[in-house]
Amino acid sequence: MIPMLETRDLAAVYGGNRALAIPHLAVAAGELVGVVGANGAGKSTLVNSLLGWSRGRPRISGEVTLAGEALSHLPSFERVRKGLLLIPEGKLVFATMSVEDNLLAVGGQLLGDRRRAYALDDIYDLFPGLKERRGHLGAQLSGGERQMLGIARALRLGPRALLLDEPSIGLAPRLVATVLATVKQLAADGLAVLLVEQNVRAAIEVVDRLVLIERGSIVAQGPAGAMRDDPRIAEAYLGAHAT
Amino acid sequence: MNLAQQLINGIVLGHAYALIAIGWTVLLGVARLVNFGHGQMYMLGAFVTWYTVSRLGLPYLVAVPAAMLAGVAVGYVMQRVMLQLTLKQDLVSIMIVTLGFGYVLNGAAALVFGSTGQILETPLSRLDIYWGDLWLTWQDVALVVAAIVFFIVLKYVIDHTAVGRTARMVAEDPPLALLAGINVKKVYLGVFAFEGAAVALAAALVAPRTPILTSMGFDEVIVTFVVVVLGGIGSVLGSYFAGLALGLFTAFFGALVSPAYTTAAAFLVMIAMLVLRPGGFAAAPGSR
């Protein structure tokens, strides 16, 4: 089976320092893969590099394919149009635009390959809270609403694969559960999802597979159930003591 | 002094200022860029209009789009040349490059159109309207109407269309716009082309009011600067009202005090405004 999203020899270098070196990583359609690791381990660099995107200026190399199609030679916006969507950490909505304008500004494109670009009504069905706030500016939204709007805007673009960078950061526990349940549902609907999370305890409950990154490299990966017992995960992130 | 006549002069002048400045307003609002060749692009628009009407003998209505096309071409080429500077937001280099472009345009225009002054006559500029003691031309009326229509259409496009939303996304956060599938480079090129078209339209409408010279451009860029700053950087409505206010100020100050000190007085107002209300007329964040 061809993975929906696959990368080989992905590397990112900041000012001469190698921040990322991933020999191989693949996510199948309908699979939810969690990426965990300490602060500065390279989790965000991984998802940003898959899209060739960054607010800094790293040198990125390596192969990225989406549904078997090579994307590495394409600029970020072209990869987005192919269906590789990133919901970044931090600023993820246009603060001076209304919720509805944030959503209307994208989507509506003719998408080939039977990709589903969510209509505005579909978005409001999925996120009723956004419908209520449709006239409010992005700047007026709470952290959870911004996260929802970031995901919603990605859905408007007909994603095949979603890259989420720390969607639970700064959210109340109840909202974390809601956001992760939504992500789980999107994967169940057939999207390939790569979820970067610091909240390992919450992430491990929803992901199919877990990837542990340290100093820019994958040091362990496996099914979520098995990784729960991995001492590197259990000790460092779940607060358990290895026996 | 006839106050009503000064009011008419101020309104016409104000719409001229607003129209001359609008390209730069959008440029600054969307691309966070400046163009110190703006005045020379105005000059080029005036001369292309003049050449099309006077030398080629074509109708004024053909000359206006011809001037706008020339503006689009110059704007596109200019941005193409300095695209890397734009992406890096290297404002100092962009200032110098655009200033240099302005002088190149001056020289090229003198070579092509000659360095003697010309009068751009249009069918409308020869038609006077008298109303008691009051006087204006149909060119003035056309200028005011065109400016109002242009601003209404532009405001609508920015607020309610896909093109406007795309421009606003790039204006707020170019990296985030990339993640929404927007080709930011293309938007930058488009904005510069729009600026070229807008200033050429302004030239085709405003230049018939005064003699034109290939060496002109400095006054226009200064007026633009004042309007853009007073209006609140990037604000379309702010620019309209700032242009109008500056026009009325110029007309009344010129009549009541002295036309010789109008520019100096306008800059004093601008300095005061920058100190007291740094955001300009449209000080609210995100206002357009």
Automatic annotation (TrEMBL), chain A:
Alphabetical list of InterPro entries matching this protein: AAA+_ATPase, ABC_transporter-like_ATP-bd, ABC_transporter-like_CS, BCAA_Transport_ATP-bd_LivF, P-loop_NTPase
Residue span, ABC transporter domain: 5-240
Pfam entry (one): ABC_tran
Keywords: Amino-acid transport, ATP-binding, Nucleotide-binding, Transport
Gene3D superfamilies: P-loop containing nucleotide triphosphate hydrolases
GO terms under biological process: L-amino acid transport
Keyword ATP-binding annotated: yes
MF terms in GO: ATP binding; ATP hydrolysis activity; branched-chain amino acid transmembrane transporter activity
KW Transport (keyword) present: yes
Family of this protein: Belongs to the ABC transporter superfamily.
Entry protein name: ABC transporter ATP-binding protein
Automatic annotation (TrEMBL), chain B:
GO molecular function: transmembrane transporter activity
GO cellular component: plasma membrane
Chain segments annotated as transmembrane: 12-34, 58-79, 91-115, 135-158, 187-206, 212-233
InterPro entries: ABC_transp_permease (IPR001851), BCAA_transport_permease (IPR052157)
Keywords: Amino-acid transport, Cell membrane, Membrane, Transmembrane, Transmembrane helix, Transport
Bilayer topology annotation: Multi-pass membrane protein
Protein name stated in the entry: Branched-chain amino acid ABC transporter permease
